Amino acid sequence: MYDRDVETNDPFVILGLPARFDLREADVRAAWLRRSAALHPDRADANAGMDEAERARAAAVLNDAKRTLEDPERRADALLLRLGGATKEQDKSIPPEVLMEMMEARETLEQAASAGDAAALDGSRAWAEERRAGHIERVGDLFARAGDPPDAAALRAVRAELNAWRYVERMLEQIDAPPASG
């Protein structure tokens, strides 16, 4: 049940799930459903004293926690912050080879988009989705090897991988964006 007296931004705590990167989407959904059901107005025992506005706020918090933990990138970022890692604003490092690789990939994408080459756009999407899968795997491995308590160098490595992953996500967002009219 959502505890209105506990103020936290930690989606793992909000949904009552273990702080792990390798959560299954089904487990996130089940936890969200359990917590959401406890907020239902017919459950007077579960939310005694909560008015409609408090229930709506609690539902919004639960929904945001669910969205965070269902998205592997957001889940990794939340876990990294929970473990004491830097935010993306504090540490903008990326593996050195990533910048050149992304510049080349973006150039290919821009050429495909300007030429209206659907096959080349599909190729850019496939490339980016393959990179996304690689980042997910590497982040999972880095978290698994980080130790308990996590080693600072491991947390820096996760941040660098997340920063590189973000470049790929931006590229996918660009591919998915509707064409500019004009």
Structure write-up:
The protein is mainly α. The chain has two domains: 11-70, Helix Hairpins; 96-176. The protein is 67% helix and 0% strand. It has helices at residues 11-15, 25-38, 52-70, 72-82, 96-115, 118-145, 152-176. The longest helix has 28 residues, at 118-145. The N and C termini lie far apart (50 Å). The model has no long low-confidence stretch (mean pLDDT 89).
Query: Globular, elongated, flat, extended or rod-shaped: what is the shape?
Result: globular
Total domains, how many? 2
**Cα gyration radius (Å):** 20 Å
Measured between the Cα atoms of the first and last residue, the distance is 50 Å
Q: What do the pLDDT scores average to?
A: 89
The helix content is 55-70%
For the structure shown, list the relevant keywords.
single chain; 182 residues; mainly alpha; Helix Hairpins; 2 domains; 67% helix; globular
Write the SSE topology.
Elements: H1 11-15, H2 25-38, H3 52-70, H4 72-82, H5 96-115, H6 118-145, H7 152-176
Helix pairs in contact: 2-3, 3-4, 4-7, 5-6, 5-7, 6-7
Short description:
The chain is built from seven helices and no strands.
